[in-house]
Amino acid sequence: MAFEAVIFDFGGVFTTSPVQNFAEFERRHALPEKFIGGVIKTNIHDNAWAKFERAEISLDDFDDAFAMETKAAGFEISGKTLISLLSLRFHPQMVDALARVKAAGYKTGCITNNLPKIDSKGMLAPDEARETVTRIHENFDHIIESSKAGVRKPEPRIYEMMCDALGVAPETCIFLDDLGVNLKPARAMGMTTIKVPIGDVTPAIAELERLVFAA
After folding, report:
1. Do you know which CDD domains this protein is assigned to (predicted)?
2. Measuring CA to CA, which of 18, 82, 161, 210 is 20 to 30 A from 39?
3. 174 with 201, same domain?
4. pLDDT by 10s per residue, the chain, length 215
């Protein structure tokens, strides 16, 4: 079956990954490797991070709840400290890849887990151009933000919502994300998935272009 749509994550795909910032924080504070990610993945659908990405709790509630969860895991980190680690930088080559996919006539979508009142522009490093986010968004036919939709990856419903919005079957979609946990539900639905390596998006772009521009 021919592909009709390409669906992208945002953070970690068009930008650097917060995981890189988490790792640096962990090194500075002599924490175990992937400590923060481990807390975020524990009780993945109902922990403080999940609730905040679905806009079910306020920033102050998240601040306290994440502190409690991390303290229970061995080192207290407030929710506001975590948010301070979300400063991201662009991968220009992925921005260009999206433009090529769009120009080739594919439907395009973005499924992003984000936070209430902190959109894609709000997560950028201070010296990154906010206008680039606008340019990226203009190349999407549809965008689903977890904090507005009340559902987040890896909940299967969010992938179904995107397919409905684009008017495509999952089997005709390619989905890119930097987190394997978010790729699994898409793959189970029938999507072709591409894992975007943290720190180097080049292999993912090569795989994407192999699939969409194959003769």
Report:
1. HAD_sEH-N_like
2. 161
3. yes
4. 699 999 999 999 999 999 999 999 999 999 999 999 999 999 999 999 999 999 999 999 999 999 999 999 999 999 999 999 998 899 999 999 999 999 999 999 999 999 997 877 777 878 788 889 999 999 999 999 999 999 999 999 999 999 999 999 999 999 999 999 999 999 999 999 999 999 899 999 999 999 999 75
Domain boundary among 64, 84, 104: 84
Tell me the residue type at 159: Y
d(CA 21, CA 146): 21
Question: How many C-beta neighbours within 10 Å does residue 66 have?
Answer: 26
Domain that holds residue 129: 5-16+88-212
Rg (C-alpha) for the chain, rounded Å, is 17
How many residues belong to the chain? 215
Q: How far apart (Å, rounded) are the C-alpha atoms in residues 49 and 63?
A: 10
**Tokens standing for residue 54:** 């679905």
